Amino acid sequence: xxxxxxxxxxxxxxxxxxxDKLPMSEHHKDCELYKEERFVKxxxxxxxxxxxxHDADEYIEEGMVxxxxxxxxxxxxxxxEFDGF
Length: 85
Ligand SMILES: [Zn+2]
Description:
By secondary structure, the protein is mostly beta strands. It has a domain at 36-85. 6% of the residues lie in helices and 26% in strands. The protein has one helix at 73-77; strands spanning 36-44, 47-51, 65-72. Strand 1 (36-44) and strand 2 (47-51) form a beta hairpin. The longest helix is centred in the last third of the chain and has 5 residues, at 73-77. Bound molecules: zinc ion (ZN).
């Protein structure tokens, strides 16, 4: 099955709540189509952004703290726009 959209998925009707202030994932955590990926959270001067791991090398300035975070790609895509440190 290549269709990863919610439409028609059996998990559509399962109860769910947002996890740790992230946007709601498209699939339920227990759904077989739910798939977390690794992203990188960069914290700097009290603000943070979340980026793809391959972009993380651009954020290595003094004082920046980087940590791995895990979420689904659709959650990542629905995060609020980053408006700058
Ligand atoms: Zn599902």
